[in-house]
Each structure stands twice: as C-alpha cells, then as structure tokens.
Amino acid sequence: MGLSSRKEKIIEAVVDNYINKCEPISSTEIRERHLPSLSSATIRNELAALEEMGYLVQPHTSSGRIPTAEAYRLYVEKLMPRRKLTRAELKTVKRYFNRKVTEIDDILKNTAKVISEITNLTSVAYLQNIEEAVIETVKIVKLTDTAVLIVIVTDHGILKDATASIPSGVTEEYCADASRFSTEAFGGHRVSEIYKPKKLINRVRREYEQIFNTIVRVLKSYAHEEIVSDIVLEGSAKILEQPEYANLAKAKAMLELLDAKEELIPVLQNNDDMSLNILISKDNEIKEGMPECAIVTANYSVNGINIGKAGVIGPIRMDYPKVISVLDYIGKTINRLPEPQSGDGNIEAVEYTQNEPDPENSE
Amino acid sequence: MGLSSRKEKIIEAVVDNYINKCEPISSTEIRERHLPSLSSATIRNELAALEEMGYLVQPHTSSGRIPTAEAYRLYVEKLMPRRKLTRAELKTVKRYFNRKVTEIDDILKNTAKVISEITNLTSVAYLQNIEEAVIETVKIVKLTDTAVLIVIVTDHGILKDATASIPSGVTEEYCADASRFSTEAFGGHRVSEIYKPKKLINRVRREYEQIFNTIVRVLKSYAHEEIVSDIVLEGSAKILEQPEYANLAKAKAMLELLDAKEELIPVLQNNDDMSLNILISKDNEIKEGMPECAIVTANYSVNGINIGKAGVIGPIRMDYPKVISVLDYIGKTINRLPEPQSGDGNIEAVEYTQNEPDPENSE
DNA sequence: ATTAGCACTCGAGGCGGTCGAGTGCTAGCA
DNA sequence: TGCTAGCACTCGACCGCCTCGAGTGCTAAT
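The joint structure predicted for all components is written out below.
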C-alpha cells in the first residue's frame, strides 16, 4: 500500500522542516514552501489522514504536525535527498587523515573525531570482528627476569599485549622456544576457534602452561566481547546542543547511556551485514530504558577487511542526508589508507572522485 | 588575623549546610542546629560581618547566606571534620581491587571507577611522571617481513609499543641486534633525557635508523606530554546530578571541559609536590573560560614510585570530608598492590587498619 | 476533489496579588 | 560593650486571570 505522491511530499516537508527547525509545521507553511498549488485546507485534510495512518502527530490540538518515527523511516528509505559533502567538509576529513597514521587506534580516534566535528553530533567508533581475525604469529618477549610480554599478531593487526609471570625464571632461549611453540599451537586459527585450551596445552611442555593460559584468556576475552577499550566516543557534550535534550532528565538519561559506552556494543552489532545502518527509536529498544534516539552507523574496512563501525548517536531528528554522506565518504577514505601496521609513511590525501567533480553546497 | 572561634563555627555551619542541602541557611537555622546559646539576632550581626569580610554572600536581599570560595578554603584547611569510610564504602573499594590486576591501565580505570561510584562525582585519574621513568631495556620484535614492534620497558612498566617499518626486510638476527643496540643506546636513561637523537644514531649503524627514530619519537611524545591516552574520566553524567549544573548552559560548559579531557592535564599537574590537592574555583582559572568548579586530587604510587593522580571534579560545593577520606584510603590500597607487570596473581584484599577498627557511619 | 470561511482550542506570556522566609535596624537590657 | 527582642521591610515563589494568536476541524459552496 503505497502512499500517494502528494502524501509523500507532505511527509518529506514535515520531516525536512522538523530536521531543520525542530518545530511543528502548519498547513499554511507547507503550502507556501512546498506545495503552492494547493490550499492549506486541502493540506489539512491530508495531514489529518497521515496522522490517522501513524506518520504524524501534533503535540497538542491546534498546533502544527511533527513526524513520528515511522515518518523518519519512510524518509530515510525513500524520500530523503542525497547530498554531497561541501568543500569545507571535504577539507576537514582530509585534514584528519592526511597525516601520519601509525596505529589502528589512531584511525579509530580520528574517525570518531572527524565525524563528530562535521555532523556536530556525538560520534561512536569501534573495532569489531576481531574474533574472526586469523592469528599469524605469537611472540614472547622477555621483560624482566620473571615476566614476559605476549604479543599476538593477526591479520587484523596486533591483538593485545598481555603480560605473564614466569616463576621459574625467564631466559632468551625460553622466550624463543615459547614463541615457536605458541605460534605453532595458535597460528592459523581464528580467534573465535580457541575454546579448548587443555587440548592445546597437552601438546606442549608444562613449562609454557602459564603463557598458554594467558594467551587463551586473552583470546577468549576477545571472542566473548569482554574487551571494552576498543569503543571510542567523541563529542558527548554535543548531545546537549540538541533541543530535544534541553530537558535535564532526558539529557541525563542520554549521557548515562554514553557513559556506559560498552553497553552500546550489542546495539551496534545488530544488522551486521548492512553497510549502512539506521536504528530509530523503537528499533533499538533492545536496551530497555534506553532513551529515545537514533543511531546511524557504517561499516568500515581497511584493505578489504571489515574492521569496525563508526557513526553517530543523537536525537531521532537528525540531518540524515548529511550524516549519511559523511559516513559514506569517510568509509571510502579509510578503505584507501595503507595497512595500519606499516608505520611511518605519510598518507596522501585521498581524492573524492565522482562523476560531478564539484560537490554541491547544499542550501 | 584569625577569626574568632564563633565566626569559624558559623562559617562551618554555613558550609556544612550548603554541602548537604545546596540551600542558603538562615540565622534562625544556624541558631537551632549549631549555636543554640545565641540568639538569631546576634548571629545575624556575625553573618553581616562575615559577608563584609568576603566569606559569605546572600543570593538576594532577604535570603539566607551561602559560602564563597574563600569560605570553602578556610573550611578544607581548618574547619572540616575528618571522617572515615563506612563499611559499605570499604567494601566497594575492596570489590574493585580484589581481583586480577594485570596491567597498569586496569589500575587506572578501577581507581577512576571506584572513586566515581563512592563519591557520586565525576572522577579523573591519570598517569604522570612518565618522563622520569628510567628505561631498562628496549625490545625489537619481528611482526611481518617488513615491520617490527618496539617495546620500551621502564621501571614504571611498559612504556609503549610502537611499530616501525623496515624497508630492507626483517630477520630474527636483525631484531636481536637491534634490541641489543637499542638497549645499549637508551638503557639507563630517563625518558626526559632523550633529546639528541642524532648523537645517538651516529653511534650505531644506519640500518637501525628507522627504529631509533621511532623510539626517539615515542619518548619525546611522552616527555612533552603529548600522550593523552593515559587520562581516564568516569561518571561524566554524574555532573548533572549536581544542582549547580541544573542550568543547561553551565552543564554544557562543564561537559565540554570533560570532553576535552586532555586539557585537564596541565591543571592537574599544578602543585605536583602535594600529596593532596584541592583546587577551588579561581585557583584553577588557569584555563580561562573554565567553568566554576573544584578539583580534588591525590597522588598515588605503586611500590613507592609516584605514578599518577586520581581525584574528583565537581562543583565547589562538594562533600570534601568524604572525598578526601576516599582518596586517602584508595591511595593506601593502591600502594600495597603488587607490581603491575607481574601478571596473574590474585590480589588479597587490603585491610584498612587504624586505631579505631570500626569506621563510624556518618549519620 | 478542492477551497473559503469561521468557530474553536490551547499554549505562551504578561499582570497583579498574596504569602512567608529572612533580613537590617533600633531600642532596651545585662 | 555585647546581646537580644521586636518590628518594618524586601523580595522571590507561587497562583490565578487574562489576552493574544497560531493553527486546527468542520461545513458549505464551487
């Protein structure tokens, strides 16, 4: 049951207006700015019908209409205009990535920062799919006489450096042997496959038990998503710039959600397959008591490997066209970055080439 | 020019009341609850005098008095009652530290979390004095054919693992040699001493240039306090529970300050020598435009080495006795933790032994 | 199907009045 | 000289009332 194109136009007008002004719109205003060929009375009739259908509501009798979450869904799926980044926005993105990028964590932070800066919303970025990474080598490095550092190298990058204590004492030979045995035992496996430490341990001498236990513990913690350090939020304070959080109670609920950022991970992990994800309101009431909001994320990948997600979190009323174009462009930029491990090189600015070379300035 | 003990009692009453209720106090109330031997009229005279002296103000004519920052300073320095932790609070601290503590970062996070939970304020913890750490060894670990991991071990713990790319190719021998030369070149020096890379580099073969440059870059970044990852905030949302930030503009200013947490570092680094630090309002207007607030921090150390600070940030009106007792106790607890590198051992609960075994419950 | 016209609704905001907590001041008392 | 009782005064908080105007729903005409 499709809506008439006139109804769709009206919904688009209401959503557009609300995104920009955060105010209800009246029938007269719709007529003047979007549908001058009709009278306000006709539009009123349509508005009443759309309200009946669940797309619009009025805050109180005798006020204009505002969109429901349903109207937003229709908007982002069908009605929304596609826009491109302005020159200034492109410049901002380049500025963040046109510098030394030595570690994967830096990419994470840069991504979050630039998204937050351009959209003026709170942004979130996190690494995922680490449990799918394939272990390449395991290195055991002597730190002190009784402690070693364990470095696990995967095709996603360095996984984690854990330390283990070796009561019997550490020698260089011990480390070399331990590295060899560990690599032999774990190499070639995915992180998620490591569930049977005993089997593995039985295959090697007992003297490496401590190290193996530590490795398994680290891997398991990744496989079970207990690691919270790899989620980054930027611009939490920006949430307060949104008029919907002018109410202190709502602002507080939102900030508490952001404070417990690890709780966001399961929400973000929904719809893993989509390259672009838009969760609106009731959709993400996975977490009960979660304040009304929308989350827009995009998957991003380096060298073709999907390494994480980044996006924004904000009120349902957000500038979806802008957010989506920003996420899209940043995804492309990141995908062209050289391998994060590779160290010191300067990254060339990535050109955003499309059919139209000149990005339109919206407005 | 000391104040009369009666004046001091009145200041204490005003501050106490304001800390608990965040409301002005009237002369009658002071009489009833703190100085029943006097009449309210006498107290009014004293209040007027104290207002003249800059310790008190009234929000408007015909309202009670509230303390100025000056009154708070007097309060924390002289008047404040000392209290001890309640059983519940002790239990909370133990719960956080009575678990595996494998890395220094975990201590940092746990400290921040427990402080925030007990005080119900936003807490801050950060590592400092890294530039004073003495480099023990430098390890170069082969990751791929063209990339190595550099691990710098100091007496404060592992400093940083950076990666460097080696265009000429990496072999195990190369790494072993590089480790030996790097340790030779940097070992025994403080992080802050590494300022002349060229001199150092000239002493070794050119093939290690890439590695040495990376090491120097890492060390310099620490020496110049460019590293921001080692400051942790917990409970940012709790700032909104304080009535002084019920005003949205103030709340926003505060949250923006917390968002840019690296900007807090210079503020925290003042008065480095003090074991306990209380910054109130004008004191920390080092950062101009910084919202009115108070910061209370304590230095903490592991194995006698001062490794950082932790504390709270909140409105000037905060429960100083509670905050100070919490920071004091946590400092003692951390100091008894085993060396962070040492890995896997379970930490025994640390008992808080004092003359009085039973901590008083403060009302 | 659309539209002009009109009565109706309802929140925003200004105004005035009451209430009461708390003060400053003055005069009197020890 | 220091303290206190008494009293007039101040001022924000709160309440109810009113007006204003934007915007609607409905009806009748085209």
